[in-house]
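Deliverable D5.2: sample structural annotation.
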Amino acid sequence: MHRHITGFSNPTVKHLRSLRDRKHRRRAGEFLVEGLRLLEDARASGRLPRLLVKAEGRETHELLARIESEVVAAGGEIVTTTPDILTKITGKANPQAVAGVFGEWDTGLARLDRGAAAIWLVAQDLRDPGNLGTMLRTGDAVGAGGLILVDDCADPFSAEAVRASMGAVFTQAIARARWTEFAEWLRSGEGQLVAASLRDAVPYRGAPYAAPCFILIGNESQGLPESYEAACDLRVTMPMRGRADSLNAAVAGAVLAYEVLAALEG
């Protein structure tokens, strides 16, 4: 189905614009993805948008034509509109020429297969969507199974998180849970919980990592609660040679993930 929209007050425009807000995303079970590269990453990962919206008057790209064809074949909708309306939808002064609406997927712990990968990333109370997206990107890079969001983390389906993930939001499994739920799930099967810490910690280089390894990263400013650290099977410390007393949360997760990868592959 194809439609052409020219009015700012069109209900579809209002709905698409509302997806910039977490409350409306959760209510609709949908999120907005902007840009051809991210849409192609989604298609390559087996996910197609329910609705594809593109600016009129732009030259059609080969990749876009393929995505359009597959969206229509899957029963989706193509909307053409003006560049000004696309700006209103995305909230960006210079939006890319195309955006897509995807349905959010199940983020329950029960759907995870812990044996599918040797490494998993776990974020606790991570508030910055950029950091969350970066952790998804890191997970993809190290071949992690996915990212588990514990407690009150940022929304992985926000535009900022999706953009920072560089498409990894479509390749990584994502689960959301409270700490007690996660801890119960983790201890119901195999899994080593590892965190960077200063409490009874060993050097992160050469530590006895074991698969499946769940790397726990805490809140950007507060770190992990002491009780959460105490629940870890292994606590490691990374040297800080300068004046800084800590690393950015997503950076710390990346450093630790690559160390675990090297240890498990060695």
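Annotation notes: The chain has ten helices and twelve strands. The CA atoms of residues 32 and 101 lie 5 Å apart.
The annotation will be released with the project's public dataset once the embargo ends.
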